[in-house]
Amino acid sequence: MGIVKGNDGVPPDVHNGGKCARLETHLLHCKAMGLININVLAAGSLFTGELMEPVTSSKAPMTKMNADIPFTGKPKAIKFDYRIHLSGANSRIKETGFGSASTVGGKDECEALVLLQKRWEDKSGHIHAKRVGTMWHRFGSDTGWVNGATFPIHYGNIVNTPYYRSFMQLQKTNSPRIYCARNHKGKLVPIIEEGWDGEATPTHIIIFFNSSHGGAYVGSPGNTMWVDNVKLEY
């Protein structure tokens, strides 16, 4: 309809006399001249990469994000300061802007993740990867500021380890949330993980903080995650 709408889900906040990022899950309203009246649930996200703006469609939102960050290190852990405030709701909502909101089971959680990948591209422009390292943590309760929290990065196949949870699975075309990168043609395509290889040298890194864990348009308004002083430890 020719209407442009911005979204500020990651405003600055104060921490230890400086600034930090505050990631908020909220309902975004757009009402204009009787032509548009929609509500969209948006989580606050902080990530390595770029959002390919302008975003002109709400379809497949992860395909609007370029996670093409070269990286060849093998850090032991990621370290950061954080604070968590959950909404308190026992279920979540899904609000895409089309139709009525629906209820999604399960308590909303904040999350942080690091994926180290060894990627390659085939002649057709598809991007493949081996998962080299994984750190994926979900926060299920409120906290005050936790400064200098350290989360180890686990290398290789973690499926049969006590650390593994189903949401850490390899990213396939049918995954609920799959990351994309530019191929040699300049097109954003999904990064398909073909297996695990903890001995390989990574070619790329994905770091992501989210105020909601359920993917696009799913969450509980009020969920908030504060993040500051992000570092990789060797």
Number of strands: 19
Structural class by helix and strand composition:
mainly beta
Low-confidence stretches: none
| Main sheet summary | 7 strands, mixed
The 3D shape can be described as: globular
Q: How confident is the prediction overall: mean pLDDT?
A: 91
Contiguous helical run count: 0
Return Rg in Å. 18 Å
The helix/strand series, from N terminus to C terminus, equals EEEEEEEEEEEEEEEEEEE
Query: What is the beta-strand fraction?
Result: over 45%
Quote the distance from N terminus to C terminus: 50 Å
Please estimate the helix content.
under 10%
Walkthrough of the structure:
There is one protein chain. The protein has strands spanning 12-15, 18-24, 26-32, 36-42, 45-47, 50-51, 65-66, 77-85, 91-94, 102-105, 110-121, 127-139, 146-152, 154-155, 180-182, 188-196, 204-210, 218-219, 224-233. Strands 5, 11, 12, 14, 15, 16 and 17 form a seven-stranded mixed β-sheet that branches. The protein is built from no helices and 19 strands. The model has no long low-confidence stretch (mean pLDDT 91). It is globular, with a radius of gyration of 18 Å. The protein is 0% helix and 49% strand. It is mostly beta strands. A hairpin with a 3-residue loop joins β3 and β4.
